[in-house]
Amino acid sequence: MKNQSNRNGAIELWRFILIGAIGIMHFSNSYYGSSPYFGGAYVATEFFFIVSGYLLFVSFYKNRAREEEINAWQFTFHRIKNLYPCYLLSFLVLFCFIMVQDKASLSTWITNFSQSAWELSFLQISGLKGFRLFNYPAWYISAMLIVGYFIYALLELNEKKFAKLYMPLAVLGIYCFFSKNAENIDVWGGAKILDISDALMRAFAGMSLGGICYYASLLIKKKQRSSVVRVLLSIGELAVFLLSIFLMNQKGHTQIDFYIILLLAVGITLSFSEQTYITKLLSKQPIVWIGKLSYPMFLNQIFVIYLIGAYLNQLSYSKGIVIFMMILIAISFIELLILQGLNCLKTKVL
Prior knowledge:
This protein has 350 residues and is mainly alpha-helical. 74% of the residues lie in helices and 0% in strands. The protein is built from 13 helices and no strands. Residues 9-331 form the Acyltransferase domain. It holds the Pfam family Acyl_transf_3.
């Protein structure tokens, strides 16, 4: 059951909650030196990879059904077009804040901005060297776009072979590789095999798993389920997400990461199956609007961390978390309003 804006309310709510968990983890580690809560929230990134992969498959088959000639380049450009305004605004706010705090000279401003070329072009996680990274959690966006292009291209070339062979092989092979060599999934800044970025491997596995979730959800939604079955599916959907969050709230960096990924995949499949009451209940405009806050919240978390670190010292843990979340939500809300205003102005002018 989808709302008027074609957004899944359950996915939007979990998106908001998990972004909050990631932000709390980053803030705690930066401000307090450790994270007593949500130490394993980095696994939530897999939720976003899986959802991105799922939606990629939705787009691919929609384009095919409409008989539209949309290739991998066009698909990726459309994604960048949607993501870039908020991405750029958040980057500029963070960049200017850091430069002002450092009392940087004009030449330093120019040098640092020029060294941001790969970050500004979503290529910071490609393996290219010689750049400075400012908004480091945005590596996820870079990995998602790069891998999304290749997955879409592979679907164009040979959909059946990719879906039946390469996709499940990638999921199994990559997760087994990280389970053996890293013993957790908190990898993104290195390259352990053939000089391929860990982040790209992680994204390929997660987005391929999203493709598997897509096919699984089609099987579930093939026929309308009875009320009893839908209640059971609803309980299962809620249970796997709550269990995932409970496990993320542990210390992290263990083999449990891979159990969480499986739980997230099951929950996402059920949420998109259109057979649970939870999705129907949550697919309301207020929930969807909350979900829209998640993207600017994700991009602004580092700015808020630096802001609090610069001006608010020795906060208690509970007070620090509350202040962090309040400022993060407020700034993200303001950015959304600014972008909506600019979009309206652009529409009127053009």
